[in-house]
Amino acid sequence: MLVTLIRTLIVFTTLLIIMRLMGKRQIGEMQPFEFVITLIIADLACIPMADMTIPLLYGIVAIFGLFLLHQILSLFERSGDKVKFAISGKPSIVINKNGVDIVELEKNNMDVEDLIEAMRSQGYFSLDDLDYAIFESNGKLSALENRNAEDKATSVPVLLVSGGKEIAKNLTALKLDLLELENFLNEQQTNIKNTDVLTVDGNGRAYLKKKNQKYIISSFPLKEIRAW
After folding, report:
1. Residue-wise pLDDT tens digits, 1-48
2. How far apart are CA 131 and CA 169, in angstroms?
3. pLDDT for the residue numbered 84
4. Helix residue ranges per DSSP H, 23-159
5. Suppose 142 and one of 76, 134, 207, 225 were both cysteines; which one would form an S-S bond, judging by CB atoms 3.0 to 4.6 Å apart?
C-alpha cells in the first residue's frame, strides 16, 4: 500500500512538472497535437501506478519523451506559417459579411447546427447577430458582433434548412409541412436544394442564405406567433 502511494506521488509530481513546462497554452488552448500528447501522457501515467510489475522509471522516461516531442513540434510550429498550418491547422471563417459559409463548415466536418450551438454558448442566438465568426485551430469560436443589425430576433430561431436539406423535426416543431416551406422558398426565388441556410423564429423572422448569395432577412408566414 505504501509503495503504491509513493509511486502515485512520484508520477503526480512528474506530470505536474511536465504540464508546467509545456506552458499555459497547453492547459487552456490546446492545439490538436497537444491534445493527443496530453491523452497519451495521461494513459502512460496510469500504467505504472496501477501495475506494480512495471518499473516506475519506464513510465517517467516515456512521459519525458513525449514532452520532448511536444517541444520539437512547438519549435517546428514557430518556424513558419506553412509548417504551423500542417501541424495544427488554420482558422476557418465560417460567417462573413455574406452570411454562413457552408463550404468552410464542411471542410471542418461541421454543419450549421454545430455553428449555432457554438454561437449560443457565447450568447448569440441568431446567425445575423455576427458579422464574422471564426473557428480557431484549437476549436474555439471567435465572434465579431454585428452592431448595425436591425430588427433583431426576439425569440430563438429554429433551423429549417441546412446545406440544401430540410430539417423535418424542426418543421414539426413549428407546425409546418414541406409544402409551406417550399412555397415560401419559391416566393424568395429559390428552393430547398439551392438554400444554404434558413432559420425562422417564433415571430416568423427568417434568416435566408441562398447559395452563392448574401443572406437576407425576411418574414415567414407562420399560422400563429410562437414564443419559446
Report:
1. 676 677 777 777 777 777 667 664 444 456 667 777 777 777 777 777
2. 29
3. 67
4. 24-28, 32-50, 56-77, 81-88, 102-107, 112-120
5. 134
Which helix (H) or strand (E) element contains residue 159?
A: strand 158-162
Q: pLDDT value at position 26?
A: 46
Global confidence as pTM: 0.70
- In whole angstroms, give the CA distance from residue 29 to residue 25: 5
Distance separating alpha carbons of residues 133 and 142, to the nearest angstrom: 6
d(CA 40, CA 185) in angstroms, rounded, equals 50
Beta bridge partners of 162: 165, 197
Q: Which long-range contacts (CB under 8 A, 24 or more apart) does 88-93 make?
A: 88/31, 88/32, 88/33, 88/137, 88/138, 89/32, 89/137, 90/137, 91/134, 91/135, 91/136, 91/137, 91/142, 92/134, 92/135, 93/132, 93/133, 93/134
Hey, CA dihedral for 124, 165, 228, 221, is it positive or negative?
positive
Q: Side chain identity at 167, as an amino acid letter?
A: I
Q: Which residue has the cell 492547459?
A: 27
Which residues sit opposite 190 in a β-bridge?
A: none
From residue 169, give the alpha-carbon distance in Å to each of 73, 119, 172: 45, 21, 5
Looking up cell 434568416 gives 207
